[in-house]
Predict the 3D structure of the following.
Amino acid sequence: AGLFSWAPTFTDYGNYNVTFNVTNGIFTDNQTIQISVLDANTAVLTYIGLPTPGNTISLLLSDYAASNKFYVVGLSTSSNPPFILSDGRAIPLTPNEIFLGSILIPSVFGLGNSVGLLNSAGNAIAIWTVPNIPAISNTTAYLSFVSLDITKPIPQGIISISNAVQITIPP
């Protein structure tokens, strides 16, 4: 008699084939099954503040499954189509120039503390200073963040992907 036991973590998402072999000493048989571990997104992004041009709002990041792990905040002008990772998961931000710029040079897009370390409870605060330019009035911005285990390659190192927060910038 045998026992199979496995408790996957948040970073073990994916499909696994497991083959069980049995014998009674005379005959043998085997059966392969597939175990699917779903990605349980635990990251949540909310904000506090009035998103008017020139104003700074606080971005509240929370991911209890990623305490003391890194995070990166991204910004885009759309959430559809999303950025599709090679493992099939989606970051709910359109990979346009704004998105790429917000990741590579966040301060140019008004993001502060947009790359950092979540605390032991899995929380952090980033900021976004809404650009004070007339062209941004009456537009919509989308923000999201990912939590990261930097000891693993991307996309396996992405622990969780937050919802996209839609922020409409008034005139």
Summary: The chain is about 5% helix and 45% strand. The radius of gyration is 21 Å.
